[in-house]
Amino acid sequence: MSDSPAMTDTVDVVHHDRPELRHHFAAVDQQRNAASLGMWWFLGTEIMFFGGMFCAYLIYRRWYFPEFAAASRTLDLKVGTFNTVVLICSSLTVAMSVRAAQLGKRKQQVWLLFWTLVFGLSFLGIKTYEWGNKYKEHHIPTFDYNVISGEGNIVKGNEALLGITDEIKNNPVKLRQREAEIQQHTKLFYSLYFALTGMHAIHMIVGVGIFLVISWMAHKGRFTPEYHTPLEIAGLYWHFVDIVWIYLFPLLYLIDRRPGA
Amino acid sequence: MASSHAFWEDALYVFLVVVTLAMTALIFTLVAVFATKYRRRHGREATQIEGSLLLEIGWTVVPLGIMMLMFAGGALLYFHMRTPPRDAAEVYVVGKQWMWKLEHAEGQMELNELHVPVDRDVKLIMTSQDVIHSFFVPAFRVKMDVIPGRYTTMWFRPTKTGTYHLFCAQFCGTMHSGMIGQIVVMEQKDYQAWLSGGPVTGSLAENGQKLFQQFGCSTCHRFDVQGRGPNLIGLFGKPVQLQDGRTVTADEDYIRESIVNSQAKIVSGFQPIMPVFQSQISEEQLNALVAYVKSLSQAPAGQAGSPDLKSAGAESQSPQQ
Amino acid sequence: MSEHSEHIVPARLYVLIWAILIVCTVLTAWVATVDLGKFNTVVALGIATFKASVVVLIFMHVKYTSEKMTKAILMASVFWLLLLLVLSLTDYSSRPQGLLIPSSSDLVRLV
Amino acid sequence: MATAAVSTERKNYLNAEYGIRSWLFTTDHKRIAILYLFSITLFFFIGGFAALLIRLELLTPGGDLLTADAYNKAFTTHGQIMVFFFLIPSIPAVLGNFLIPMMVGAKDLAFPRINLISWYIYIAAGILYIHCLVTGGVDTGWTFYPTFSTQFSNTKVIEAGLAIFISGFSSILTGLNFVVTIHRMRAPGLTWSRLPLFVWSHYATSIIMLLGTPVIAITLVLVVLERALNLGIFDPTRGGDPVLFQHLFWFYSHPAVYIMILPSMAVISEIVPCFSRKRVFGYDFVAMSSIAIAAIGFVVWAHHMFVAGISLYSAMVFSFLSFLVAVPSAVKVFNWTATMYKGSVSFNTPMMYAFGFIGLFTIGGLTGLFLATLGTDVHLHDTYFVIAHFHYVMVGGAIMGYLGGIHFWWPKISGRMYPEAWGRLAALIVFIGFNLTFFPQFILGYLGMPRRYWQYPPEYQVLNVLSTAGATILAVGYLLPLVYLLWSLRYGAPAEDNPWKATGLEWTTSSPPPTFNFDEIPVVTEEAYAYEKMPLPEEVTLER
Predict the structure, then answer these.
(1) Integer Cα distance of A226 and A211 in angstroms
(2) Selected residues 141-200 of chain A with any CB under 8 Å from a CB in chain C
(3) Which pLDDT band holds residue C97 (cuts at 50, 70, 90)?
(4) Domain boundaries, chain A
(5) Residues on chain D touching B51 (C-beta within 8 angstroms)
(6) Between chains, do C110 and B92 touch, taking CB under 8 Å as contact?
(7) In this complex, is the C-beta atom of C107 within 8 Å of any C-beta atom belonging to chain B?
């Protein structure tokens, strides 16, 4: 609450010569700070938006740990790691392009934004490839979902983890019951997997859209060392989406990758 | 005070009412007095008062203290209500759109009605077959949600004989308000007599009629109005138009299959919403049901309806308009 | 209080942070395959939190901002998220075992 | 009545531009507030119509007027429209939008275009909801509990869920705008400790909108996905937990109650000092209690679930926390009452509503204790006691505050005075009608009548008839202001800039204000509510 007096004292400094200054702001600084504060609050909202799904994930993971772990192992670790790297690269190019704007290097800025778009679209492409694999494996809930037989059999190799002892194996009734449970509980994992990564991908698509506009603005030379607020707050959004993925990666891909566990 | 909980519940309730009345009276009086005593008059100005730390602390701490009393009382009672005694008589309860099915440990089945002895702890072990319901007996001051896929429990100890309302308190669909019944509290000896009424005897079709209600068939297969399932009167032996265009004859096999594997042949114009009864129904029960459905067609048209209708229709929950 | 007061982070630092993030990503993928018992999840989330903090502090300039509100908002949101998770868990972690989900066969008797 | 010295030719926000485009594409926060005023009034009367159907149906124990399905749709519609399309946007989007920039001495909200977008989002959501309504409606109750909503309801759950999902973004963006405006747009000298309490309360409200709304948004998405794709997240037969939905739902929907009541408290905190001609008693405590309510309000949600199958331990924790949230509400009531002490109280319409608010909110708040107390909640949960309790808070509280605020700032909004005698009469009718409608429901609830019952045992009829009779009176009380406020737009006396001689920056500009609110950005040099420096309004000084 102590931030105010300093801030409000500057209000009477008026810059009428700045084209980007909107009528209801007294100063460019005030406008920039408002935009940045608005974006930070929005990111707070976003945390809670994903938070609802994290809550569901946490509870079902505690309940059905073996099934979640087994299902998690069917996600491609190499591709997931690579995709994380791709996203981190895009964050670097965003941060660097903001820096280029601060220094007034227009050409560099545009190139960095171009690479951001390339990385962002690559991430989405790789994600689509992963989802495609899940479709082939019948791991998408309600679309011919099947994890206990066929290509997407996750029981094979995970017997110990899933608690399928020899006793259960030799008892058809018990085996069928256990398999039905596995089928249902892994479905919860995949539902949350697709909800979380899908929601993340929607944020990525929105981000790519925003950065297309930002790139065009940068190309037109709209951003100067004095004014590059749109780029800056779009960057905040992009980094946030990156951070969501930084958590999604271990939560979805790395539930239990210990060999033989 | 129809149950052991009711006394404590009401005592706590009265305490809360007294506090509420006192507080409301205080605020109303203060507002009324200030508004009249200090109403705007010529030549008198308001005296500016910034506030008083002492008062602020006072009206923070005192209400908090009183509320902690409420919390403690409520928590104790709640703990008591959620901890059933070990030797309580057990009754299994299944909630289902829109009826209560109850089964005593001794095996007696009841529908929308529960007979219990007075002065004896009764523990209900409850689950639901479809949506969330809530078992609510206002006179006993007890309520617990009945949730599909898991058990919830509640217990009470009736202290007065009589008949009490049983309500479903959690909204559960169209006939939520019809999901009501009664708790009959009897003297011990009356209860024993009721218990030893023994298993139902009667003709196969009569047993089937009872089952027809117990399994809730009569909620959808109604005789008075068009329900969610086909009307079964006069069905037996007639051709039935199926959804896939085929026509079959309603013989014993068809009726049996429609119960055991209801999704196999869907009657044209109806939704495949009937539950599959395979492995949930014994052969004897099946036989009785088939006999009952047959009986709906055998009796002369005029009579077939009325006696059966009365009993079967009355059960169907919707008080007629 | 002019707009030039915003901090310009050296490019080398950005690249260094990028390298740290990449290393951490590979590390977390590798360490998941090592048996640490209960600590696998702790380590994975620890690394994720470290990575997230670095992104927030450096890439998102929170380390350099003079704006106290940014940090306040961040902490408030994370705190609110924890409220949701922790208070939900007060229910889930203390439900008696028997009241968890009974396997469907137990219910058949009743239905 | 003093003749207004305002020249009619003066440009203000209403006559600055004409034509439908000047309204639909405006970014002026005052015009957007007017757009909201019209749209929420429309929704209020749709929701009110549903309420009327409910009360008429309950006149008799049998199902005489509506079918069971129609009744279920009626109370669902009533709940969803009143909560999501009326109460949540009501005071923030109308009065907050209109006043916050003026109260902080700014020309507009921080993001005027986002403000307009949020109105369009609201309208889109509203149209979708009305479409859902006319093409079949929804019957889940406003709470959407699975597994009924996800598997068993045959009505348009997906459409209604999406409509409410969309309306959530309107709420988020409004909250975002307020928070940033309050942080960044304050006039020189307007420190936090000089802010009007109206602004403090709206700050607290906005925090709830920002941090709570996304949770219900994602929860409704999960319900829609579950229903559309049959996933099983909330289906216990497939390993899901329907109680998890309730946790997520109430994590937002309990704080949402404070979204409705905090802005109303904001209005009362302005009205009471003005008509007592006194500084508000304990400014710091009233301000901080708003923040406390917003914060503690987030940790009490499971008191809606004491009999829903949550653990014993968890129920105790939430019961304890629920009592804590009652303390700041009590502090507010005491402070308003103390503000009148040694004041100079006049009985104008806004003050009548404030009296009504204090009385009804006191009852509403205290009956909340019955539901926070574990032992009594077991009996009272899901009965008419709960209905009575939350209507005392949301109708007796929130709508009283809303009407009080509309009357208080009507001269500023419209530039006209409303007819005072009619105003007082309407306030009285609303108060009487309200109590007659809802007080019997406390008794009904204690006697055990469950909520959402289409038919009920005949012994409950007398109280239900009383309640329905009260509802007709209440309806008259709500229609009256609609009529005379519209009348006053044309025939009302022109308003002075500051007819109440109230403090606050919004009263220093003209009525109605110019498009950019102030000809010159004001400089604040003193604390709020410096009533000792204000003259008395002329009309009422002559009494006695």
Answers:
(1) 20
(2) 177, 181
(3) low
(4) 42-253
(5) 281-285, 335, 338
(6) yes
(7) yes
The amino acid present at A63, given as its one-letter code, is: W
CB contact under 8 A, D215 and A52: yes
Q: Do D423 and D484 meet the contact criterion of CB atoms below 8 Å apart?
A: yes
How close C96 comes to chain B (CA, Å)? 11
Residue ranges of domains in chain C: 1-61, 66-93
Q: Helix, strand, or coil here: B7?
A: helix
State the average pLDDT over residues A47-52. Answer: 95
Residue B14 to residues B18, B19, B24, B80, D438: CA-CA distances in angstroms? 6, 9, 15, 19, 20
With beta carbons less than 8 A apart as the criterion, state whether D307 and D378 touch. yes
- Domains of chain B, by residue range, sit at 1-18+59-199, 204-315
> In 3D, which of D401, D411, D403 has the Cα closest to residue D201?
D401
For residue B122, list its beta bridge partners.
B89, B156
CA distance C2 to B311: 87
Spatial CA neighbour of D335 closest among A18, B34, A62, A245? B34
CB proximity B247 to C under 8 Å: no
DSSP per residue, B28-66: HHHHHHHHHHTB--TT-PPPP----HHHHHHHHHHHHHH
CATH 1.10.760.10 matches B204-315: yes
Three-state DSSP at B116 gives strand
Q: Residue B107 region, left (φ>0) first, then alpha (ψ -120 to 50), else beta?
A: left
pLDDT digits (tens, 9 = 90+) for D340-362: 999 999 999 999 999 999 999 99
Query: In terms of DSSP H, where are the helices of D104-196?
Result: 112-134, 157-184
pTM of the model: 0.87
Which of the other chains make 3 or more beta carbon contacts under 8 angstroms with chain A? C, D
Please give, rounded to a whole number of angstroms, the shortest distance from the CA of A81 to a CA of chain C: 7
What ipTM did this prediction achieve?
Answer: 0.90
Strands B122-128 and B152-156, sheet pairing: antiparallel
DSSP per-residue codes, C20-84: HHHHHHHHHHHHTTS--TTHHHHHHHHHHHHHHHHIIIIIT-TTT---HHHHHHHHHHHHHHHHH
What are the φ and ψ backbone dihedral angles of B41, each rounded to 5 degrees? -130, 160
**Touch between chain A and chain B: 3 or more Cβ pairs under 8 Å:** no
Q: Which DSSP string do the residues of B88-108 spell out, in sequence order?
A: PEEEEEEEETTEEEEEETTS-
Q: What is the pLDDT of residues D110-140, one digit of tens each?
A: 999 999 999 999 999 999 999 999 999 999 9
Name which CATH class applies to A42-253.
mainly alpha
D26-537: what CATH class?
mainly alpha
CA D390/CA D393 separation, integer angstroms = 5
What confidence score (pLDDT) does residue D262 get? 96
Q: Which residue has the tokens 């901090």?
A: C7
Decide if A6 touches C, using CB distance below 8 A. yes
CA dist list (Å): B236 to B223, B239, B294, B297, D168: 15, 9, 6, 6, 55
Scanning the structure block, which residue is given the tokens 């009541």?
D261
> What residue ranges in B132-274 does DSSP mark as E strands?
133-137, 142-146, 152-156, 162-168, 181-186, 239-241, 247-249
Rounded distance, CA B141 to CA B158, Å?
11
Q: Is the predicted pLDDT of residue C5 greater than 70, yes or no?
A: no
Residues of C in contact with B280 (CB under 8 A): 108, 111
**Cβ pair B279:C108 closer than 8 A:** yes
Residue at D397: amino acid letter: G
What's the per-residue H, E or C state across D385-435? Answer: HHHHHHHHHHHHHHHHHHHHHHHHHHHHHHCECCCHHHHHHHHHHHHHHHH
Residue with tokens 């709206």: D202
- Residues of chain D contacting B270 with CB distance shorter than 8 Å: none
Contact B170, D406 (CB under 8 A): no
Tell whether domain B1-18+59-199 is in CATH 2.60.40.420. Answer: yes
What letter represents residue A198's amino acid? Answer: G
